[in-house]
Design a protein that fits this description.
6-stranded antiparallel β-sheet; two-stranded antiparallel ribbon; 5 helices; globular
């Protein structure tokens, strides 16, 4: 009985600490009530940006601050969707699935798990972070196992991020919360 209980506890801890490690790639094109297909998929503008609009580069593709807003609008459309290990659609998301699907709407293909996503883009100081950047955490005790998208940076410096929590599904949390503050590993800029 002890052995069965031990296996159950270990499996439960793995599920709670993990953030999806499936290599399966699921393309999901629904944002709110609007469905995007290849023909009407959101594309970044190739025209000149206004002087007040930031322009970022990634994989030789230009991204603008409008793209970061679109990314966040996409991610926020999933608020309240339950957590599902390996999930990458409205029936359930794990953290890396949410990030992958949200970036996919911009035509930006990411690996399926958080540890591999952490190797993409450019590592930045958290003090340089902006909306749309990724934040990575060690929730398993051994390596990067959780990811979120920075949703806002308050005037006080508080950073809020959207992610899929194992207990509450897709939510917005604060990096000022002790749990996240003590598990933060790095920030990465993709856009």
């Amino acid at each position: 009985m002890k052995k069965i209980l031990g296996v159950f506890v270990m499996f439960s801890l793995f599920i709670l600490a993990s953030c999806g490690s499936s290599n399966k790639v699921t393309s999901y094109r629904k944002v709110g009530s609007k469905v995007y297909s290849k023909s009407n998929h959101h594309k970044s503008s190739t025209s000149k940006s206004s002087a007040s609009e930031s322009v970022y580069r990634s994989n030789n593709k230009s991204y603008t601050s409008k793209d970061a807003s679109y990314l966040l609008k996409t991610a926020k459309s999933y608020l309240g969707v339950p957590y599902k290990f390996g999930g990458a659609n409205r029936t359930g998301f794990d953290c890396s699935g949410l990030v992958m699907v949200s970036f996919d709407e911009l035509g930006f293909k990411l690996p399926r798990n958080s540890a591999k996503q952490a190797s993409e883009g450019k590592e930045i100081k958290i003090s340089e972070a902006r909306e749309g950047d990724l934040v990575f955490f060690n929730t398993s005790g051994s390596s990067i196992s959780h990811v979120g998208i920075i949703e806002s940076i308050e005037k006080t410096g508080e950073i809020k991020f959207i992610h899929s929590s194992t207990s509450k599904g897709v939510i917005i949390s604060s990096m000022d919360e002790n749990y996240w503050k003590t598990r933060f590993v790095k920030a990465v800029r993709l856009l």
